[in-house]
Amino acid sequence: MKSCYLFLAVACSLLVIASAGSFYQDCDITWGDGRAKILNNGQLLTLSLDKTSGSGFRTKNEYLFGKIDMQIKLVPGNSAGTVTTYYLSSEGSTHDEIDFEFLGNLSGDPYTLHTNVFTQGKGNREMQFKLWFDPTMDFHTYSILWNPRHVIFMVDGTPIRDFKNLESRGIAFPKNQPMRIYSSLWNADDWATRGGAVKTDWSNAPFVASYRNFNADACVPASGASKCASNAASNNGGWWNQEVDSTAQERMKWVQQNYMIYNYCSDLKRFPQGLPPECSIA
């Protein structure tokens, strides 16, 4: 396993996709029968949901470590029952996955931001937050920084969660499987809002979420050897070696103390045999 990781880490090339890139170039619409649209010469992508279907897209490239940014404006108004997803994932039953999910709510109530990390097909690492702004009024930047030591979730540059590599303690970490970015807008009114108590009001359809300024400063697996790590360290502040520094730690602490509404590491009822091991270490 270690030798496989080292091979993949070396045999990847650094791909920098600037914010001026195009959704035509970077992404494929994967489902929705016309409900997903690329507009403004490739600078804007919209997903829509009606009673018949939602919609989704994915990136053309797979990534193995990187810093991924997307600006999203979520479904406004009464979005109860809807889920907007934005996540990295590999394929297969032992897949890795790094999730942002935005759970809609009644007009005037805040969205729930749901995060999760899957390693080798195993998830159950949910942390949920309310946002400190209205994510439907304007675009906000949601980022995943993924390097060999950390998976850091960020909102407008503020870290909200840091999943650390604790493999030395027997805890799996996503590091071997290249992943694509996926995003979708779909109906989940059986669970999304207040545990399914509030259903989707289809009189408000179509529901629309908007995306812009996708940027992936990331390693893309390639057949030839290259200098991914050294290039990454010298580009864009060096995400390859980035951690949550003391200033960012204070900001993350502020978010978690004031806006975190669920932490799997505090859910003793869910884990009566004992909390997952990373909870006591991290």
Overview of the molecule:
The protein is mainly beta and 282 residues long. It has 5 helices and 16 strands. It has helices spanning 2-10, 23-26, 228-234, 246-258, 277-281, and strands spanning 12-17, 27-31, 37-39, 44-49, 55-59, 66-73, 82-89, 97-103, 112-118, 127-130, 140-146, 150-155, 158-164, 180-187, 207-221, 260-263. Strands 1, 3, 4, 6, 11, 12, 13 and 15 form an 8-stranded antiparallel sheet that branches. An 8-stranded antiparallel sheet has the order 2-5-14-7-8-9-10-16. A hairpin with a 7-residue loop joins strand 7 (82-89) and strand 8. The radius of gyration is 19 Å and the shape is globular. The two termini are 24 Å apart. Pfam families: Glyco_hydro_16, XET_C. InterPro entries: Beta-glucanase-like, Beta-glucanase/XTH, GH16_AS, XET_C, XTH.
